[in-house]
From TrEMBL:
The gene is Eef1akmt2. The keyword Nucleotidyltransferase does not apply. Keywords: Cytoplasm, Methyltransferase, Nucleus, S-adenosyl-L-methionine, Transferase. Transmembrane segments: none annotated. The lineage of its organism: Eukaryota, Metazoa, Chordata, Craniata, Vertebrata. This is EFMT2 methyltransferase. It comes from Dicrurus megarhynchus. Residues 56-185 form the Methyltransferase domain. InterPro entries: Efm4/METTL10, Methyltranfer_dom, SAM-dependent_MTases_sf. CDD domains: AdoMet_MTases (cd02440). SUPFAM superfamilies: S-adenosyl-L-methionine-dependent methyltransferases (SSF53335). It catalyses: L-lysyl-[protein] + 3 S-adenosyl-L-methionine = N(6),N(6),N(6)-trimethyl-L-lysyl-[protein] + 3 S-adenosyl-L-homocysteine + 3 H(+).
Length: 210
């Protein structure tokens, strides 16, 4: 991929500072990455597979924290969201307060250098964070490897990893996460037709840690 400001912390700090101000002004929680159907897709999979409601869930790059709120509304109790942008965590804290979801834990954390207490999760969820890392103008390849290494540390053996991406195909993601993870399922996403060929603009996969 071509390097982009979308891969820089400065971009996300500025973006979430704007969203935080907008929330304080008019109560708008901001953009939901990949739309509401992306959250429904994740929750439906968890419910279909009868994932226990007390399972520990980590939202990697939580942004405004809306996914965690929806998980809490669905009955999930052990929820943690991390983001390397302090402004994102401030925004997600405001959203949490507005929704009255005091049981959601939120932390400023860089997933590429996670703290020691960030471990033992049953489920990790990523909606767009791996995409952003892949656009880093610095060492994107090295940072993707750091990401996979961090995922292996924070996710329990046999834990589930649900990733939604608009930059990577299924085959590319299988290659990126080939070490330590195996594919369980591809989740249905909206299809488009271009030049007689049908494709997906978004890829959603479920991996299991070996």
């Amino acid at each position: 991929f071509s390097p982009s400001v979308l891969g820089t912390r400065e971009h996300w700090d500025a973006a979430y500072e704007r969203e935080l101000q907008t929330f304080q002004d008019i109560g708008d929680t901001g953009e939901i990455w990949f739309g509401e159907e992306s959250m429904v897709r994740i929750i439906r999979w968890l419910e279909k597979h009868k994932v226990p409601l007390d399972s520990s869930v980590l939202d990697i790059g939580t942004g405004n924290g809306v996914l965690l709120v929806e998980l809490a509304k669905s009955g999930y109790m052990n929820l943690t969201g991390i983001d390397y942008s302090p402004s994102a965590i401030q925004l997600s804290e405001k959203v949490r307060e507005k929704e009255g979801m005091s049981n959601i834990k939120l932390k400023v954390e860089d997933f590429l250098a996670p703290s020691a207490d960030l471990s033992g999760f049953d489920i990790c969820i990523d909606k767009g964070t791996f995409d952003a890392i892949s656009l880093d103008p610095g060492d994107a390849v090295g940072k993707r490897k750091l990401y996979v290494g961090s995922l292996g540390r924070v996710l329990k053996p046999e834990g589930f990893f649900l990733i939604t991406s608009c930059n990577w195909t299924k085959e590319e993601l299988l290659n990126e996460f080939r070490e330590g993870f195996e594919i369980l399922e591809e989740l249905p996403t909206p299809k488009f037709c271009f030049g007689g060929r049908i494709g997906n603009s978004v890829t959603a996969l479920v991996f299991q840690r070996k």
